[in-house]
Design brief:
655 residues; alpha/beta; ABC transporter transmembrane region fold; 4-stranded antiparallel β-sheet; 22 helices; 13 strands; 11% strand
Length: 655
């Protein structure tokens, strides 16, 4: 899938199409709350009742000073004391109920959002995963969803609670003393104006903090895994990676300090404004009390209400800042939810129950960059670097397919051929010829830019992807196993398989004796990416997994050159019965497979250069004949044979 020289690779454009904080964004956020309308109604009712109940204590204080103490009314004093104790108890019990329903609502909304995002990412095409770093995806699913959760479970309930508290308090304060109430309201600009400025600053800080956290996650996911650790250790790059991580974590630290300081200055301003408002009310209230305009109990009650006025105002001002910054998380989640799905089922797609396995490629072409603009992807062409240290290289996730595209425009161009049902077709060609791309097109990992692919006469785009996947089994050179038991990895092919079927599949793949020799048998854990197993053992497990799936069509990258001769023999013995009776497409690396093929397709530069049997292609004395001489032709055993072959290949390269 790649050529030499100047690499082109694709990176997800972070700056493209970011949603803005507007009514449309808010409506979209609130749309997730619609299924929880009843619970939200309970929460609002609890907030309203609690706010009204909590208005009573200051009135009790006023009654204490204006009535009970002057009249020495002991019975009334007892009732006031009971009220002062009972009201907080009732209020807190209602608060518990409100918290329960608000938590259920918030967690439910985030549950829906998280699952919607995961489902959408599951449906994204391979292009997305080859062009997006794993740390970025994990950050969206974890950090951003948690940030959105904070907005729903904490910020929104706080807004409602403080708004109701503020309005009810203002009504009572106006009824007590309208002049003091107006004085209290007069300092509101001191709360509101700074909040707007701080909100904009903290929103930008929040986005930068998330970006820095994503970069830190990327470094962790790339280096603190088996493949990454092997690369770091074998190249002695521990200090370099340590420096990279310190730089990323330092950025996280610095942005955190900046956010804390902006918040501290903001809260200091709010505290000063509250103090000024309190002092003015004491001053004017004291004056009115001295002149006899209001009673001492009224000023006591009024000052008690001031805390219920300025507290919610401060909280709402802070909540405004928090809400603005937390919406950044929603923005980042929606950015991913809005990415178009490259390969989708048509509305009238058919379910293919049982395929015969007849395949036709009709003038098929694939341009990897054709849909980049629609998919929000930007192509970068790196400039050659002199030191090689930070030259923009191909970014390729350890468990991703190649993240680069060939330097030529067309990965596959105008390719046509037919594969009869039940036959074996071998794909051969030099590196970067387009062999792997052809195998990606059949299971619809990509859709052709032009032309069409037929399976049993059906255009692949007319079939559901799920039913198509059931008909196709893929065994790649790079095996992938989950960090789980052998049993779980095999059952991934078919969850309802019986123990007898597991054993039969393992025997067919020549891996059963090995599994039986393990202390825990099928329940043995294979480790991260199966690294507790050898290359040959992993390959045979993946073959057993495909045997258990029992597909009608088999796609196989038959690379076994990196395995020892015993493992290679076991794998070849497992593959022969697996391919029997199935339509098989093999990227061939062994002469025996090529000789067994019903037809050979020779790819070069994305085009079908030659097609035919082994004998016919050799007679043409073209590309296949040259490949045969350099790669496939048997050579004498022993050191002399190896040396002769290396010399021959060197001469071929020179020519």
């Amino acid at each position: 899938m790649h050529g030499g020289g100047w690499w082109s690779y694709v990176a997800f454009d972070e700056s493209k199409g970011k949603p803005q904080i507007d009514r449309a964004l808010l409506r979209r956020v609130m749309a997730y709350a619609r299924p929880y309308r009843k619970a939200i109604a309970v929460v609002l009712s609890c907030i309203l009742v609690t706010s009204v109940i909590e208005l009573i204590p200051p009135l009790l204080y006023r009654d204490l000073f204006d009535t009970v103490i002057p009249n020495r009314d002991f019975a009334r004093l007892n009732w006031l004391a009971l009220g002062m104790v009972g009201i907080p108890i009732v209020s807190n019990l209602i608060g518990v109920l409100e918290r329960y329903y608000s938590a259920r609502t918030g967690e439910g909304i985030i549950f829906d959002l998280r699952n919607a995002l995961f489902d959408h990412l599951q449906r994204m095409g391979l292009r997305f995963f080859t062009h997006t770093r794993r740390g970025e995806i994990i950050s969206r699913l974890n950090n951003d969803v948690v940030g959105a959760q904070s907005a729903v479970t904490d910020t929104v309930p706080s807004i409602v609670t403080n708004t109701v508290t503020l309005l009810t308090t203002l009504v009572v304060m106006l009824s007590l003393e309208w002049r003091l109430t107006l004085l209290s309201i007069a300092i509101l600009p001191a709360f509101i104006l700074p909040a707007r400025r701080v909100g904009r600053i903290l929103r930008e800080i929040r986005r930068k903090a998330l970006d820095h956290n994503t970069e830190m996650n990327n470094i962790v996911s790339e280096t603190l895994t088996i493949n990454g650790a092997l690369l770091v250790k074998t190249f002695g790059r521990h200090r370099y990676e340590q420096t990279r991580y310190r730089k990323a974590s330092g950025d996280v630290r610095d942005i955190g300090v900046r956010r804390a300081m902006v918040g501290r200055w903001f809260f200091m301003g709010l505290g000063i404004a509250s103090t000024i408002g309190m002092a003015l009310n004491y001053w004017l209230g004291g004056y009115y009390t001295l002149t006899g305009a209001i009673s001492p109990g009224t000023i006591v009650a009024f000052v008690a209400y001031l805390s219920r006025l300025y507290g919610p105002i401060s909280a709402l001002t802070n909540v405004q800042v928090e809400f603005v910054t937390s919406l950044v998380s929603f923005e980042r989640v929606f950015e991913y939810l809005d990415l178009p799905v490259e390969v989708e089922d048509r509305p009238d797609a058919k379910t293919l129950t049982q395929a015969r396995g007849e395949i036709q490629f009709e003038n098929v072409s694939l341009d990897y960059s054709a849909d980049n603009e629609r998919l929000g992807i930007k192509v970068h062409r790196p400039v050659a670097g002199g030191n090689g240290e930070h030259a923009p290289a191909v970014e390729e996730g350890e468990d991703a397919l190649p993240a680069y595209i060939p330097s030529r425009r067309w990965a596959v161009e105008d390719v046509s051929f037919s594969i009869p049902a039940g036959s074996l077709t071998a794909l051969v060609g030099p590196s970067g010829a387009g062999k792997t791309t052809l195998t990606y097109l059949l299971p619809r990992l990509y859709d052709p830019t032009a032309g069409r692919i037929l399976l049993d006469g059906h255009d692949l785009r007319d079939l559901t992807q799920e039913s198509l996947a059931r008909q196709i089994g893929v065994v790649t050179q790079e095996t992938y196993l989950f960090h789980d038991s052998i049993r779980a990895n095999l059952l991934y092919a078919r969850q309802d398989a019986s123990e007898a079927e597991l054993v039969a599949a393992a025997k067919a793949a020549n891996i059963y004796d090995f599994i039986r020799s393990l202390p825990d048998g099928f329940d043995t854990r294979v480790g991260e990416r199966g690294y507790r197993l050898s290359g040959g053992e992993k390959q045979r497990l993946t073959i057993a997994r495909v045997v258990l799936k029992d597909p009608r069509i088999l796609i196989l990258d038959e690379a076994t050159s990196h395995l020892d001769s015993q493992s290679e023999a076991l794998i070849q013995a497992a593959l022969e019965p697996l391919m029997a009776g199935r339509t098989s497409i093999v990227i061939a690396h062994r002469l025996s497979t090529i000789l067994a093929a019903n037809q050979i397709l020779v790819m070069q530069n994305g085009r079908l250069a030659e097609q035919g049997s082994h004998a016919a292609l050799l007679a043409k004395n073209g590309l296949y004949a040259r490949l045969y001489e350099t790669q496939f032709r048997p050579h004498p055993e022993g050191a002399g044979g190896i040396i002769d072959r290396r010399a021959e290949m060197g001469n071929s390269d020179a020519s």
